[in-house]
């Protein structure tokens, strides 16, 4: 059944992107030498749980030595603040500073600030520090992340009533489910859907694969999407999402990668590599 | 048999929604909507066939009818059609064993249903039982099945409870549908099978039947899709914007059940 559902999703995304296929490069195109920024997914790409993927620590150092290439870490997280992610990366051995990290929570925060929103936050307690200083009285928007403690009848009813009275709906991301120690567990997507179904309000999805996410991630880096590479293990959220706005996607065969993933999107990934270290080799050899 | 010219038809049969039409919900089952106890008596007195069609799943049919009787309604349990008896029949016909995510007070109506080693999920209006972990159990159950089957007892979006809107079962069904890719089979309004069973019980044809409800989509739209006339009342969960619904145009909109019955009886042949 997983397979079947996935096929359906792929078919959908292929159809919706069909018109853009021609304008984006093919897999045989040589990676150009004017790459100015590399976007890197975290979990599954740079590390799997608390271990780096093979050669990743050194590869990142080598990439960092290229003065004309900027590096940004991009991730869909709904419960880990930047500070939490940073601590984990440092502990694993990666040299990262906070301004290098752009998460779906950062994207949500940007949107909240830009639109002067007063959000009702259905997010995990750990994520609250990314919303520090945001006014929350008399809410005019609802922000939904993954927060099992908040996904209850009472709080969802409150969210629904706010949406009924005109609040906007922001989804940190819309993942269907994720893997937990006891098996699969519901992601934020289903709860976003419940609220959308109840109220007729469509959520503004801020995380990957939304185009705005990738554009916001490179804002201030002084480069165009065509000059950026996205390295990730999720063929739809990382690679398809980035390639949709003209970035070059490198799919790595670690983390959630499954055989044949590269055939599930059109156009296919710009490159497919064994792991992050090999992806970095590709980037550097193209320069 | 009596009949009335209503909405350009010859109406002989009346199907009534319960919550929001007969009574407003609230503590102890809520309270009767003004004029509705008498309205039903007038329908009986004039010889109309009446059935009650509800998506109520937070209590047993017996409790529901008892509450209505205590409020003063004259109502016979066998003329009340809630989704749980209907889904029990489906489960038995198709030899399915459900994982139940339903209201604890409705469990008695599932008595005798084999829930061991489940091969489908039944979602009712579980209210406070709609926790992350309970939804996750239903989700995991569906993901383990080779041919996952999800039954949704109605597919309402929300309803009014103690003066506040609360999410109805349909919203949680939408969540599970999105997570699993399974399309739920709806048992209850607006399922044509469900309305069909009610018509069959009266020996009625759809074109001679009117459905009165406060849910523009499930009651009015659902009945119209089956060929019945659909009447919207301005009680219960009704909101002014329902009068301009993009897809559903009621055959009539009335202030309440009493006004509907006034109109129906005024046009009797």
From TrEMBL, chain A:
It comes from the Eukaryota. Keywords: Magnesium, Metal-binding. Its cofactor is Mg(2+). InterPro entries: HAD-like_sf, HAD-SF_hydro_IIA, HAD_sf, LHPP/HDHD2. It holds the Pfam family Hydrolase_like. Gene3D superfamilies: HAD superfamily/HAD-like. Belongs to the HAD-like hydrolase superfamily. PANTHER family: 4-NITROPHENYLPHOSPHATASE-RELATED, HALOACID DEHALOGENASE-LIKE HYDROLASE DOMAIN-CONTAINING PROTEIN 2. NCBIfam families: HAD-SF-IIA, HAD-SF-IIA-hyp3. This is Haloacid dehalogenase-like hydrolase domain-containing protein 2.
UniProtKB/TrEMBL annotation, chain B:
Gene3D superfamilies: HAD superfamily/HAD-like (3.40.50.1000). Keywords: Cytoplasm, Hydrolase, Magnesium, Metal-binding, Nucleus. SUPFAM superfamilies: HAD-like. CDD domains: HAD_PPase. It is an enzyme of class 3 (hydrolase). It comes from the Eukaryota. It is found in: Cytoplasm; Nucleus. InterPro entries: HAD-like_sf (IPR036412), HAD-SF_hydro_IIA (IPR006357), HAD_sf (IPR023214), LHPP/HDHD2 (IPR006355). It holds the Pfam family Hydrolase_6. Its EC number is 3.6.1.1. Its cofactor is Mg(2+). It catalyses: diphosphate + H2O = 2 phosphate + H(+). Phosphatase that hydrolyzes imidodiphosphate, 3-phosphohistidine and 6-phospholysine. Has broad substrate specificity and can also hydrolyze inorganic diphosphate, but with lower efficiency. PANTHER family: 4-NITROPHENYLPHOSPHATASE-RELATED, PHOSPHOLYSINE PHOSPHOHISTIDINE INORGANIC PYROPHOSPHATE PHOSPHATASE. Belongs to the HAD-like hydrolase superfamily. This is Phospholysine phosphohistidine inorganic pyrophosphate phosphatase. The lineage of its organism: Eukaryota, Metazoa, Spiralia, Lophotrochozoa, Mollusca. The gene is LOC101852259.
């Amino acid at each position: 059944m997983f397979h079947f559902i996935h096929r359906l999703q792929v078919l959908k995304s292929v159809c919706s992107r069909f018109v853009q296929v021609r304008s984006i490069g093919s897999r045989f195109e040589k990676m150009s030498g004017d790459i100015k920024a590399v976007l890197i997914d975290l979990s599954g790409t740079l590390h799997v749980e608390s271990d780096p993927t093979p050669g990743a620590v050194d590869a990142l150092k080598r990439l960092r030595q290229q003065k004309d290439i900027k590096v940004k870490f991009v991730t869909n997280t709904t419960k880990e603040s930047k500070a939490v992610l940073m601590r984990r990366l440092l502990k694993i051995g990666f040299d990262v500073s906070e301004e290098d990290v752009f998460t779906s929570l950062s994207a949500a925060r940007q949107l909240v600030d830009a639109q002067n929103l007063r959000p009702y936050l259905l997010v995990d307690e750990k994520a609250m520090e990314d919303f520090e200083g945001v006014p929350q009285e008399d809410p005019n928007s609802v922000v939904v992340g993954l927060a099992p403690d908040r996904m209850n009848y009472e709080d969802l009813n409150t969210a629904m009533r706010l949406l009924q009275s005109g609040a906007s709906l922001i989804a940190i991301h819309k993942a269907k489910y994720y893997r937990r120690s006891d098996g699969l567990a519901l992601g934020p997507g289903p709860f976003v859907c419940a609220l959308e179904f109840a109220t007729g309000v469509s959520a503004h999805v801020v995380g990957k694969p939304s185009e705005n996410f990738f554009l916001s991630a490179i804002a201030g880096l002084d480069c165009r999407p065509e000059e950026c590479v996205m390295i990730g293990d999720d063929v739809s959220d990382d690679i398809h999402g980035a390639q949709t706005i003209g970035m070059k996607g490198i799919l790595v065969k670690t983390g959630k990668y499954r055989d044949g993933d590269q055939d599930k999107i059109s156009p296919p990934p710009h490159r497919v590599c064994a792991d992050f270290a090999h992806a970095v080799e590709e980037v550097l050899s193209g320069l | 048999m009596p009949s009335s010219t209503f909405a350009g038809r010859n109406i002989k049969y009346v199907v009534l929604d319960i919550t929001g039409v007969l009574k407003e919900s609230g503590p102890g089952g809520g309270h009767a909507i003004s004029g509705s106890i008498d309205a039903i008596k007038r329908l009986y007195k004039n010889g109309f066939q009446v059935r009650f069609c509800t998506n109520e799943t937070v209590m047993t049919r017996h409790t529901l009818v008892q509450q209505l009787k205590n409020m003063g309604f004259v109502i016979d349990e066998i003329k009340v059609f809630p989704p749980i008896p209907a889904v029990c029949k489906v489960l038995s016909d198709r030899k399915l064993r459900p994982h139940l995510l339903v209201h604890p007070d409705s469990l008695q109506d599932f008595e005798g249903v084999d829930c061991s080693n489940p091969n489908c999920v039944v979602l009712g209006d579980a209210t406070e039982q709609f926790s992350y972990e309970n939804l996750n159990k239903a989700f995991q159950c569906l993901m383990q099945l080779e041919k996952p089957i999800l039954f949704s007892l109605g597919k309402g979006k929300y309803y009014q409870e103690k003066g506040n809107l609360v999410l109805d079962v349909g919203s949680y069904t939408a969540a599970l549908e999105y997570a699993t890719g399974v399309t739920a089979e709806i048992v209850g309004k607006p399922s044509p099978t469900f309305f069909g069973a009610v018509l069959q019980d009266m020996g009625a044809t759809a074109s001679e039947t009117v459905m009165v409800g406060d849910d523009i989509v499930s009651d009015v739209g659902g009945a119209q899709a089956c060929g019945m006339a659909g009447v919207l009342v301005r009680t219960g969960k009704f909101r002014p914007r329902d009068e301009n619904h993009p897809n559903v145009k009621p055959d009539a909109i009335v202030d309440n059940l009493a006004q509907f019955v006034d109109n129906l009886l005024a046009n009797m042949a």
